[in-house]
Amino acid sequence: MAYDSHLAEFLEGALADRPGITKKAMFGGFCWMLNGNMLCGVEVGRFMFRVGKDLEAEALTRSGAEIVAFNGRHHLGRR
Length: 79
Known about the structure:
By secondary structure, this protein is of the alpha+beta class. The chain has one domain (5-78). It has helices spanning 5-15, 53-59; strands spanning 21-26, 29-34, 37-43, 46-49, 65-70, 73-78. Strands 1-2-3-4-6-5 form a six-stranded antiparallel β-sheet, with helices on one face.
């Protein structure tokens, strides 16, 4: 499975105490789900965050941010 273990460990620690969070192998990496919906994930060298349409424009102003599309759904990726 192609993913960055350091990024995965960082998200794992950041989300450890949050209720409703589960970890799932997906897209060649890992995703963290909130009540069954994708919240964030990691691949090789990048995080992915699902921010919603209302925050998408603001999120894309951050350095390295880009749109990531899986199965017709957009997610925010960051290197």
